[in-house]
Specification:
The complex is a heterodimer of chains A (501) and B (134). Chain A contains 13 helices and 20 strands. Chain A is of the alpha/beta class. In chain A, a hairpin with a 6-residue loop joins strand 9 and strand 10. In chain B, 69% of the residues lie in helices and 6% in strands. Classes of the chains: A alpha/beta (501), B mainly alpha (134). At the A-B interface, strand 12, helix 10, helix 11, helix 12 and strand 19 of A face helix 1, helix 2, helix 4, helix 5 and strand 2 of B.
Chain lengths: 501, 134
């Protein structure tokens, strides 16, 4: 059922089994998993079905450093379907190594493994409407000294809002509320659970949603903001007794700093990259062992090789008589060595060329964080202040990844690599618009916000869905993994709510 | 006026002689196709995967000024089996580049990670074709 919150009575109280705040990829995936299971669900969306400036302005805030202006409203979309409305659709599970504790990457390690998520990745594939046959990572060539691995991305830019609007509106057990702006999580007085969420319609009307369980699915930044602004019972904000909410914010810095040149005789790069299609793209990364040896982060190298139109080699052939070379050859002959240079007929091998990006893992950093600004939005909620910080390992990892690629390209004859000379990596990246880590998953509440089931530590009926629970960022776009985690959270909540019933 | 005409005629005649000499020198290739040196350089440059070998070669000279073509040619051509089919030359040159990388004989020129041998070839091209002292 569809309800426009602007039509509700002021002071209305809605009662449900589950209240989901936010109708982006995570919220919609969660709602879909609940449909038909005997629970009543409220799905709250602050915007409408289409983008509007008034709703979008609620995402404004302060970002340091100002990498892209304005980062906060430009990187997110505040209407039904959320940021999937501008998603490029790259789907790939995180790698095993992304979940592991790496002693050379401080604060790395999840409380779950890739294997834990495997069945949920298969279900996420159905939600994202991609084939579940995710090919593994494999060495670029079967050679022990090779340090480059390759893997494919599926590309399926599904607009969740359009794809699932009908299903959700038609569902008898789900009520979709548009223009329902969550203002505050109201904890019970002892602080151990959420009693209700206060909601504002577009105008002055206010209403409440009471539920047995609540899930924040507001996005990687807004999840942290909602916990922080809900500070009337716990003064530091909900789930923030150890000052962890908002910390470890990560994005995928993208470094468009390198180039690669190959020919069709160069082998795997050219062979693999020219086979990319609209629904499938191959990328490359350093082998796990090389990451450990070089003590660097994960990261993904992607390029689309194109043939070079102008070939300078004909010019080289015809412009010069190469007297010096001829003299050398003559001297060789005089020394009794045979010099024939029997030529071949045929075309010169075409060159292929591509600039390429390094989409880097961003190291977890407690000082990279979401906090609240002193400015407030039109509902009186303090705006976001984002302090996105990079560290030396973030830049060194990019430099080393390009270097290893260049070395192996030379050793195996794949082509040649160029890192723009005198590049200042610290000023040469742009954000990937992937917001991760601000309510990270850790077993110990001193080091994270949610437990392994994505439930907020110390608040027994509050879960979080979205990339804010990620402990590390890998290189893969976060949507596919956050959908898998949302599906897994749905299973967990259904068991708990079943028990409560 | 007469003197100017004479100078122009003289200059024109001199250029004509130079042109004739160049044409004579290239006559064999015009009649029979590229010379063996031209074919050889073409084969080797084809194996260097950089888009602008002349530009890269210029960076080599910036790093090592004063290098002459007579220094570069032996380094580029050493150990190549010049007496056999061109495929053998190609194979040996490829291996030479790989050996450079394996042995750490690499050089960074304008950001490109190159083997020393191919950098020297680019330098030779810059010298002979790109007008660096050529």
């Amino acid at each position: 059922m569809l309800i426009d919150a602007n039509q509700l009575d002021d002071g209305a109280v809605i009662e449900k089994d589950l209240c989901i705040l936010g109708a982006g990829a995570a919220g919609i995936a969660l709602a879909l998993e609940f449909s038909g299971h005997g629970f009543s669900v409220a799905l709250l969306e602050g915007g409408g079905f289409e983008r509007d400036a008034e709703s979008q302005a609620l995402y404004e805030g302060v970002c340091e450093p100002p990498l892209i202006d304005p980062y906060l409203p430009a990187s997110r979309l505040r209407y039904f379907g959320g940021t999937t409305n501008h998603w490029l659709g790259y789907c790939r599970p995180f790698d095993d190594i992304d979940f592991e504790q790496r002693e050379w990457v401080p604060h790395s390690g999840w409380p779950i493994t890739r294997a834990t998520l495997e069945p949920f990745y298969r279900r996420a594939a159905a939600v994202c409407k991609v084939a579940p046959d995710f090919a593994g990572i494999e060495p670029l060539i079967a050679e022990p000294a090779n340090r480059i691995w390759t893997f494919p991305f599926h590309i399926a830019p599904l607009r969740f809002g359009y794809a699932y609007r009908g299903v959700l509106v038609d569902a008898t057990d789900i009520e979709v509320f548009l223009h329902a702006n969550a203002l505050r999580l109201a904890l019970r007085p002892n602080g151990d659970s959420v009693d209700h969420v206060e909601v504002a319609a577009s105008g002055d009307r206010r209403f409440q949603v009471r539920a047995k369980a609540f899930v924040l699915a507001l996005g990687g930044i807004e999840n942290a903001r909602m916990l922080l602004v809900s500070d009337d019972v716990q003064s530091q904000g909900v789930g923030n007794q150890h000052d962890q909410v908002g910390r470890y914010f990560m994005d995928h810095p993208i470094f468009p700093v390198a180039q690669i040149c190959t020919s069709h005789t160069s082998g795997p790069f050219t062979d693999l990259s020219v086979r990319n299609t609209d629904t499938w793209a191959r990328s490359f990364r350093l082998a796990d062992g090389e990451q450990e040896r070089s003590r660097i982060l994960n990261g993904c190298l992607s390029f689309n090789l194109i043939p070079q139109v102008e070939d300078v080699r004909q010019q080289l052939l015809t412009k010069k008589s190469w007297d010096t070379v001829e003299a050398y050859l003559a001297a060789e002959e005089q020394a009794g060595r045979e010099v024939t240079v029997i030529g071949r007929e045929g075309e010169d091998p075409a060159l292929f060329f591509s600039r390429f990006d390094v989409r880097a893992e961003h190291a977890p950093n407690p000082d990279s964080r979401v906090t609240l600004d002193h400015e407030v939005d039109r509902f009186g909620l303090r705006r976001v202040r984002l302090d996105w910080r990079m560290q030396a390992i973030d830049f060194e990892s990019v430099r080393r990844a390009v270097e290893v690629l260049a070395e192996d390209a030379g050793r195996f004859g794949w082509g040649r690599v160029r890192l723009a000379p005198d590049i200042d990596l610290e000023r040469s990246y742009s954000p990937g618009f992937h917001h991760m880590g601000a309510t990270r998953m850790q077993e110990d509440p001193k080091h994270g916000v949610v437990d392994r089931n994505c439930m907020v530590h110390g608040v027994k009926n509050l879960g979080i869905a979205g990339s804010s629970v990620f402990c590390t960022s890998g290189y893969a776009n976060p949507t596919f993994s956050l959908v898998a985690l949302a599906v897994r959270l749905a299973d967990h909540l259904q068991k708990r709510l079943g028990g409560l019933a | 006026m007469t003197a100017q005409l004479s100078r122009r005629a003289l200059a024109s005649g001199a250029l004509g002689l130079v042109g004739l000499a160049t044409a004579v020198r290239h006559l064999p290739s015009l009649l029979t196709g590229p010379s063996r040196a031209q074919r050889l350089i073409r084969e080797l440059v084809n194996l260097v995967a950089v888009t602008e070998p002349i530009a890269v070669g210029r960076f080599y000279f910036a790093a090592q000024p004063g290098v002459k073509a007579t220094d570069l040619v032996p380094q580029v051509l050493a150990e190549l089996p010049l007496g056999g089919p061109v495929e053998g030359i190609r194979q040996a040159f490829r291996q030479k580049l790989v050996d450079d990388f394996e042995a750490g004989r690499t050089i960074r020129l304008d950001g490109w990670y190159l083997s020393e041998t191919e950098a020297q070839l680019c330098a030779l091209v810059a010298l002979e074709v790109g007008g660096l002292g050529g």
